[in-house]
Amino acid sequence: MNGKKDDGIRVSRRGVVKGGAAAAAVGAVAAVPHMGGSQHAQAQSAEDIANARGLTPQDVTAALKTYVPSGKLDEYYIFASGGHGGQVLVVGVPSMRLLKVIGVFTPEPWQGYGFDDGSKALLANGGMNGKTLTWADTHHPGLSETNGEYDGQFLFINDKAHARMAVIDLRDFETKQIVKNPHIISNHGGAFVTPNTEYIIDGSQYAVPFGWEYAPLSDYKNSYRGAMTYWKFDRETGKIDPSQSFSIEIPPYWQDLADAGKGPSDGWSFSNSLNTEMALGGIMEGQPPVEAGASMRDMDYLSVINWRKAAEVIANGGGEDVKGMKMIRMADAVANGLVYQVPEPKSPHGVDVTPDGKYMVVAGKLDPHVTIYSFQKIQDAIAAGGYSTDEFGVPVLDFATCVEAQVELGLGPLHTQFDNTGHAYTSLFLDSAIAKWKLGGEGVDGGWTMIEKIPVNYNVGHITAVEGDTVTPQGNFVVALNKWAIDRFAPVGPLHPQNFQLIDITGENMQLLYDMPIGIGEPHYAQTIRASKLQPWVTYPEMGFDTLHMQKKDGAPEPGKEGVIVEGNKVTINMTSVRSHFTPDNIEVAAGSEVTWNITNIEMAEDATHGFALPGQNINLSIEPGETTTITFTADTPGVYPYYCTEFCSALHLEMMGYFLIKP
Amino acid sequence: MVATQHTQTAQVARPAAHGLSRIKVGLDARLARFFLQAGAGILLIVSIFYPYWEITLHAPQYPRGLFIQTFVDKMEPARNVFEVDGLNHYIGMIKLTDAATIERAISVYAIPAVALLAMASFLVTGIWRTLMRLPVILYPVIFVVDLFAWLYYAGHSLDPHAPMSSSISEFTPKIFGKGTIGQFHTEANFTTGFYLAAAAAVITLVVAIWERWSRHARPQ
Questions:
Q1: Is this complex scored with an ipTM above 0.85?
Q2: Structural domains of chain A sorted by starting position, each given as residue range(s) with its CATH number in brackets
């Protein structure tokens, strides 16, 4: 075909097609020598590769079990805490590919998180002492549940450093809310959900007076307290409702981890604690450091709390307002039979309820056993009465009466997860291994016995099993969330990544399949869910969608209605973005103007995101198809500020820009 | 008398045609032809609700393909029209919604009018009868010619200053079968609506021919 242009280089359509065909032909010819003419030749080639790379047959099967070819999707998602990176990591299984990093407590410029008005307000809402916080020590993600199973709708995660809770909506994998617990300043026992996500459990760790009000350390036993907070979740709005939430005052022991009961134990929650010694350190005063002081007693306490009854107490007008949120005081809690304590061996770590809801497994940490309590026995002990109390008046049941079994696993048991064959998997920190053991109970032969140990690299903290803390674990895989990588990866300087190790539990022996380095935070816990349970949106459903409120926004900029409105000192810009231009493009405002800049991405195609970087105002936005977003600032310093699309969008991405001028 | 007439006409030699010799001629045949014509008219009107022509664009960035369905009055789905218009602006092609604007505006009225015209042809005689049926018969041809003309125009009126003008030269998007536009492979097909209109045309033609035959066969 002849074109009309005679300037510069012009490639005719036919030329392009011909060129493409030629390239393909060359490629095919070049590939021939490498291709065997038969199946046999192919197999040899794979073996040659294995030999050349020094791979054992076990390595090859491990590779086959994890490799996901281009265009195919993973079967499961892991949602892992990003540790003190303040984010949530999304990983695909079995490929162990990092799919996404979700900004939660920490501003994240690629997602524009913490840079537009909506997310800035969100972060400010989770602030403390009047300050916005830009980091968090995220620990334990909790997926929302319905009837004790993951429903794939929401994800909650805690901030240990400041006692906060965040809500992530799994329709668009974005954070929608952060709440700050007004009672406590340190939480570890969160986020754990009740079987229908009625409440999100949040347990205090380092005790302080409520609202972290000042009281000297010498006043510890009188003024310092623990709290078990139950955040009410409203599924309709997709938000936590602090006005319907409440705490229960408990002794100032450090609560560690919690789990909600299910099935027969539904309505109760469990939390293991440590430092019932109430050791406070005081090294300069000749006192033992906390690490020694908190580890002296043989037993600490497992808290057994009737949250359903507590909710009724609140609904009937019980509890009092403390720092703006309801609280049931310790005496009331005891009087209403809401809190009981059962001794548990020596600074335990982790309480996990079995899938049938009958047993609670507490890992020893400084004791080499897992201790299994029977819910029925605890109920019987409560009914029987005649129990003692601790110095705070909280009932303490008898250990031997409530214990079902103990299994010796090794040094440093921490966390337990379950599979679908009646087995449990417990992480052993000091042994640097995972122990597989058999659950017991009625009609089970040879239960409560250790089966196998597999070494992991190194120092495993939590583990995650596929839906392993629900009523229907799926088995197949377990991932060891190792704290130390040491020599596992190519060196990257003194600060080493962590190591997620994928383990196949389907065979007669557990098999280590894959090491995944985590170079962005120290994840603590993770949850693994079937991919089929999630239905994330591919674009936003309507043009002009406000992602913070998850609905269309009235008056959002739309095609044909763009423009700049000046009213005295206030300037409102209504802008749309589409490949490859912003409308309007060049904008001039007077210095000192209060600028409100609204942008809607009017694309409808998948992955057609546009960015927006405005120099001088510390702004970078990410606007997904359909989304509308707003920034406000004072146009203080006169000058010329070219703004542009930062997310590569099209062949003319470079040209997608405009001038923003502040006239003196 | 009527019976006699029927017997008489039945005995007259007529050109043999499949099944026609078995159908009673005269009033019954005329009624049959009218109902056939009405059927054709209905098919034509119904065709408005179905796509006439579909083109699917394949490119690496669109793994599920990008398809546009053309109805007599609109193009669907709106999000794909939006997307194709966005792509077209790189090569300087007119927007899809700027193509065949008059045709698409009048078709919802013109097509029923044409269908009714063909049905009303039974009320007149002579050359007018034939003329009133012609629009239905010619309509599919007119559609194809018009579509081809617009495709030709779209591909030959590219803005010479468009960003990709150096990579794409003038072309006519393929109206049927496989083609290529830039990095896109296209596949085009005529679909249900068109075939309904074509059926209506054929039925009208058959009715006209049948009428002509039976007119020759009838004693004058």
A1: no
A2: 76-533 (2.130.10.10), 545-663 (2.60.40.420)
